[in-house]
């Protein structure tokens, strides 16, 4: 009988605190309009070094799934973009199947120079054309002499691209330059990176199809870090509103190597993105600057958190 009274009192309490709420949704105007390419994709340049690893461009399943995501941007870039050179030659490259290479490369700083051959670039462009994606390609910014960026290899790639008639939508120069000192012991200031981008503009202006192309950068790490915020600001102040069409920074919630499942549901961690977006928009106010983009984002940096980033719980991020 005592249990019955407790249940009655509990239900009475619920009835007392629950109130009817009338919710009205105005459908006569949009609160925010996003691009039809708002949800887009980034893949790491490192998979080119491993000859696309397990990404099979000729797979009907991959093609079907990719076409369903169209229209979208495909940004090919990342840390290894700064170690890649293009060659118009063709080459039979060994097919790797070692996903853990990306994570170990990132954490152990085992970056090595490598070559992207024309047949690999052909595969990429044929695929994005087939599925209706728009390609943004990241160029090597560490090809330098006397502290200045050397655009020769970028021009070689653009000449080849132009000859083949490939329609690359946008370009990027380097990756996370504010962290170069940490990863490779070499520094490029934000103001110098703006000068590098001015050279990129001059190069693109030699090709009619790219005079008004998308240009993104400086592609810093997350703006919650003071060094990244200072770099992002210095780059934009030096280069001005026209240095890039869309200022970019990268955002990851946690360290993939140390991540726990509890972090994927931690409210403070989940709420950490919005302050970074607000900071980016405040620094690169639109207008006169183009709208700020997240050039890379994901649950965990360093290749993701094994057993977590590819599961349901990552959807909260």
Give your account of this protein's structure.
Helix 8 (190-204) crosses helix 9 (226-239). The chain is α/β, with parallel strands linked by helices and 317 residues long. It has one domain (36-316): TIM Barrel. The protein is globular, with a radius of gyration of 23 Å. Mean pLDDT is 90; it is low at 94-107. The chain has helices at 2-17, 46-49, 60-68, 100-108, 118-131, 152-164, 180-184, 190-204, 226-239, 267-270, 273-283; strands at residues 41-44, 73-77, 84-87, 114-117, 134-139, 144-145, 148-149, 170-173, 214-220, 246-255, 293-301. The strands form three sheets. The protein has a seven-stranded parallel β-sheet. GO terms for molecular function: hydrolase activity, acting on glycosyl bonds. Keywords: Signal. Residues 1-20 form the signal peptide. It comes from Mytilus galloprovincialis.
How are the secondary structure elements laid out?
Elements: H1 2-17, E1 41-44, H2 46-49, H3 60-68, E2 73-77, E3 84-87, H4 100-108, E4 114-117, H5 118-131, E5 134-139, E6 144-145, E7 148-149, H6 152-164, E8 170-173, H7 180-184, H8 190-204, E9 214-220, H9 226-239, E10 246-255, H10 267-270, H11 273-283, E11 293-301
Parallel strand pairs: 1-2, 2-5, 3-4, 5-8, 8-9, 9-10, 10-11
Antiparallel strand pairs: 6-7
Helix pairs in contact: 8-9
């Amino acid at each position: 009988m005592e249990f019955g009274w407790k249940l009655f009192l509990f239900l009475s309490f619920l009835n007392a605190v629950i109130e009817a709420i009338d919710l009205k949704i105005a459908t006569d105007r949009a609160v925010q309009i996003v691009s039809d390419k708002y949800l887009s994709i980034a893949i790491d340049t490192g998979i080119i070094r491993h000859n696309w690893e397990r990404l099979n461009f000729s797979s009907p399943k991959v093609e079907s799934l990719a076409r369903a995501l169209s229209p979208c941007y495909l940004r090919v870039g990342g840390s290894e973009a700064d170690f890649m050179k293009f060659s118009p030659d063709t080459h039979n490259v060994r097919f790797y199947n070692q996903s853990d290479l990306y994570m170990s490369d990132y954490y152990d700083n085992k970056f090595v120079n490598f070559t992207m051959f024309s047949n690999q670039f052909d595969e990429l462009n044929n695929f994005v054309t087939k599925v209706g994606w728009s390609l943004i390609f990241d160029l090597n910014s560490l090809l330098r002499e006397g502290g200045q960026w050397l655009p020769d290899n970028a021009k070689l790639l653009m000449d080849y691209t132009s000859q083949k008639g490939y329609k690359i939508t946008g370009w990027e120069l380097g990756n996370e330059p504010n962290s170069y000192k940490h990863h490779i012991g070499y520094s490029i200031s934000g103001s110098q990176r703006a000068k590098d981008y001015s050279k990129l503009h001059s190069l693109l202006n030699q090709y009619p199809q790219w005079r008004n192309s998308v240009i993104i950068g400086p592609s810093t790490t997350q703006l919650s870090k003071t060094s990244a915020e200072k770099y992002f600001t210095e780059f934009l102040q030096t280069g001005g509103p026209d240095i890039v069409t869309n200022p970019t920074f990268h955002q990851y919630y946690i360290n993939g190597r140390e991540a726990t499942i509890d972090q994927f549901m931690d409210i403070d961690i989940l709420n950490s993105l919005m302050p970074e977006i607000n900071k980016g928009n405040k620094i690169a106010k639109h207008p006169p600057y183009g709208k700020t983009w997240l050039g890379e984002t994901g649950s965990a940096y360093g290749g993701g958190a094994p057993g977590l980033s590819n599961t349901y719980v990552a959807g909260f991020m």
